[in-house]
TrEMBL record:
<keyword id="KW-0052">Apoplast</keyword>
<dbReference type="Pfam" id="PF04674">
    <property type="entry name" value="Phi_1"/>
</dbReference>
<comment type="similarity">
    <text>Belongs to the EXORDIUM family.</text>
</comment>
<keyword id="KW-0964">Secreted</keyword>
<dbReference type="GO" id="GO:0048046">
    <property type="term" value="C:apoplast"/>
</dbReference>
<protein>
    <recommendedName>
        <fullName>Protein EXORDIUM-like 2</fullName>
    </recommendedName>
</protein>
<dbReference type="InterPro" id="IPR006766">
    <property type="entry name" value="EXORDIUM-like"/>
</dbReference>
<keyword id="KW-0732">Signal</keyword>
<feature type="signal peptide">
    <location>
        <begin position="1"/>
        <end position="25"/>
    </location>
</feature>
Length: 354
């Protein structure tokens, strides 16, 4: 089994590196003076996963029955035949059908349970690929490895909250994905906006230089980094106006719709990697930027959950009156979920459900 490629897709991790100074309004006014260019994900003429796609699952580690049911209800809501209350998970997923090749109908296939941590609690990306091959057959499938809160993955919380990639097997190319439960390791990074984001301390002040004038503008983000919100932090070597202290707006964390910060965070990340997998399964589908670090269907629209979003604010979402939980999509069995924006090729823009 030889790896073809490996690339990362995060949802909430880079929110930490784009939370602006409280003078955000002034920053946005300045940004309005800069010419906006439409976001376009280029199609690189590769194979996409279309038609009927089976999602095979490998549960690695301990998941409670309730946790598994939340994730299964989300997956079964993607192409549900039920008439769901709008906005719905299925309406969100239908955006993938606007990419080349038409609709994608997903069903849950095999489920493999590995509660004994057969290869340990600290895994490499190569081990994830090997584990994924145990989930089931590969024809028009996505094999998904889901790891529990005790499992440490190479790069988890540092550079990624989830991944998707592919490997060559004796039966052909296998598209696979991985998402981990971050609740014990980095909920502030991989389960935002259900957890308060980590505060990044400002850089030490430089020695006073009376001959140098520093304009009193708020911190800006380079145009080249503005959409790359799932990338490493902006290096401190980048000078003014891009190295101003980073602050988090004082916005309270949202209440998760399924009352589980870790699992609700996994849903957001699972949505991200699944959309990326079907629209760019073998690294030659739809993406923008370098092939080894692409912006894809959802990762190109990071930290956006509703209209009016800005860095540190997820946007306008729905609120459950009984619990105060936030969501933007209805699923089967009365479930509610918070799903990220997805790039719509017909609109050439990131679109949200609310």
């Amino acid at each position: 089994m030889a790896p073809i490629h490996h690339f990362t897709s995060l949802t909430s991790l880079l929110v930490l590196f784009i939370l602006f100074h409280p003078g955000l309004a002034r920053t946005r006014n300045l940004a309005a003076l800069v010419e906006e260019h439409p976001l376009v994900l280029k199609y690189h003429n590769g194979l996409l996963l279309k038609g009927n796609v089976t999602i095979n699952l490998l549960w690695y580690g301990e998941f409670s029955p309730n946790q598994r049911s939340i994730i299964l209800d989300f997956l079964n809501s993607l192409s549900s035949s039920e008439t769901l209350m709008e906005p719905s998970v299925s309406s969100w997923w239908k955006t993938t059908g606007r990419y080349m090749g038409g609709p994608v109908t997903v069903v849950v296939g095999n489920q493999v349970f590995d509660g004994e941590y057969s290869v340990g609690k600290s895994l490499t990306t190569d081990q994830l690929a090997i584990l994924s091959s145990k989930a089931g057959p590969i024809k028009n499938t996505v094999n998904v490895v889901l790891t529990s809160h005790e499992v440490v993955i190479d790069g988890f919380c540092m550079t990624k909250c989830g991944t998707h990639s592919s490997v060559i097997t004796e039966s052909g190319n296998l598209a696979y994905a991985w998402v981990g439960n971050s609740v014990r390791q980095c909920p502030e990074q991989c389960a935002w906006p259900f957890h308060k984001p980590m505060q990044i301390p400002p850089s030490p002040p430089e020695p006073f230089k009376p001959t140098i004038y520093t304009p009193p503008f708020p911190r800006l983000v380079p145009r080249s980094l503005e959409r790359t919100m799932h990338s490493p932090p902006i290096p401190q070597s980048v000078r003014w106006p891009f190295d101003r202290p980073i602050y988090s707006p004082k916005i309270a964390p949202l209440i998760p719709p399924n009352n589980d910060v870790g699992i609700d965070g996994m849903i957001m990340n699972l949505a991200t990697v699944l959309a990326g997998t079907v629209t760019n399964p073998f690294n030659n589908g739809y993406f923008e930027g370098p092939a080894n670090a692409p912006l894809e269907a959802v990762s190109a629209c990071p930290a956006i959950f509703g209209k009016g979003s800005y860095p540190g604010y997820p946007g306008q979402v729905l609120v459950d009156k009984s619990r105060g939980a936030s969501y933007n999509a209805h699923g089967i069995n009365g479930r509610k979920f918070l799903l990220p924006a997805m790039w719509d090729p017909q609109a050439s823009a990131c679109t949200t459900l609310t």
